[in-house]
Write a structure and sequence with these properties.
mainly alpha, Serine Threonine Protein Phosphatase 5, Tetratricopeptide repeat, two-stranded antiparallel ribbon, 11 helices, about 65% helix
């Protein structure tokens, strides 16, 4: 008798509803916190379709909120308007990487580096992409991290690259700055 009461009670519990994934009222009550910002930016782009910064901002908003399929055509549109804009291309590459479109992201990072070989951000994020590749492209990641440190050892990106190199057990081109801020290379007293 007790077992049948417990079973009847369990049968009436909706576990989906308990965890907020019932597709019903909970799903209808969920509000995307970025919805209004994206909507406003969509209006701005509709009113100013040739404003590359507005298009790029909308692409970033969509890309950063998991709406990559909507963001890609906007990134491409912005790059068609301004193909030499490294910032837009870097944002596009990072969005592609975040969306696990690794080959497309790699192509964009390589395009940046073909135009600006000393772009430290592109080097670092390309290294991150290689490190996260399945299987990891560790040697290529190490080379990019090392180059990022060499470009300017005093930046935050260089510090992060240094940490990644240490985590990978790789030799680092620059250990740390000495008291006057001059980089000390390995083997330097």
């Amino acid at each position: 008798m007790v077992c049948s009461i417990v079973i009847a009670g369990i049968a009436t519990i909706s576990f989906d509803g308990l965890f907020g994934d019932d597709g019903g009222d909970n799903a209808q009550n969920y509000q995307d916190p970025n919805k209004d910002v994206i909507s406003q930016q969509q209006t701005i782009v509709a009113q100013n379709p040739d404003d590359v910064q507005s298009v790029a901002l909308l692409a970033n908003l969509l890309g950063n909120t998991g709406r990559l399929k909507e963001a890609i055509p906007l990134y491409e549109r912005a790059l068609n308007m301004r193909p030499d804009d490294i910032g837009i291309r870097l944002d596009f590459a990072r969005a592609l990487a975040d969306g696990n479109l690794r080959a497309d992201a790699e192509k964009q990072f390589q395009e940046i580096l073909s135009r600006d070989p000393d772009n430290q951000q592109a080097r670092y994020y390309l290294a991150e992409l290689y490190r996260g590749w399945v299987p990891a492209r560790t040697d290529e990641a190490i080379a990019q991290y090392q180059r990022a440190v060499e470009i300017d050892p005093s930046t935050y990106i260089a510090q992060q690259s240094q940490h990644q190199l240490e985590a990978l057990g790789a030799a680092t081109p620059v250990a740390s700055p000495n008291a006057n801020g001059t980089p000390i290379t390995e083997g330097t007293p």
